[in-house]
Amino acid sequence: MDAEVLKKLARYCAYQERCVWEVQVKLESLSVSENEQSDYFLWLEDNNYLNQERFAKLFVRSKFNQKSWGRNKIKFELKRLQVSDSLIHLALKELHELPYDSVLKKLIFDKFEQQKENNSWLKKQKCFQYALRKGFEADIVSSFIQELPTE
Question: How far apart are CA 35 and CA 20, in angstroms?
């Protein structure tokens, strides 16, 4: 293993939590052959620079807290980053500790208040679509939409 590559990888992983796919892309950009990549992955895991479970849990918490993403969008993004289904399932349990419903309710009510539309049905429809785009489940969104005032 090349010491310079190890140094770059360590810095890359120490800067922020990374998934295996991101590190693999980084290794390819550093022109590391596929045969040598497994040695680098082992070194990163042994030295606690790379941990898929830690990455997935942090990803769930940060995307929910910072961007108000729902389960569906978080799950989709984790799959895009090639995180295993079992880790995704484990990481999504982090949402049980977070104020999921209250964040969704605030998101919907704030969006409803921002609408300049006069028709309350259209306002509700826009709020519903907005919450779905944020990755929240349709049944939960629907229950909060019903709580919105009808004008």
Answer: 16
Residue 31 identity: S
User: Structure tokens of 129?
Assistant: 């679509």
For the chain, where are the alpha helices, taking DSSP H only? Answer: 3-15, 20-29, 34-46, 52-67, 71-80, 85-92, 100-114, 120-133, 138-145
Name the residue among 59, 142, 61, 151 with its Cα closest to residue 105. 142
Domain ranges of the chain: 3-46, 52-97, 100-145
Check if the beta carbon of residue 108 is closer than 8 Å to that of residue 148.
yes
What confidence score (pLDDT) does residue 140 get? 92
Residue type, 119: N
- The Cα–Cα gap between 62 and 14 comes to 17
pLDDT, tens digit (0-9, with 9 covering 90-100), for 62-86: 999 999 999 999 999 999 999 999 9
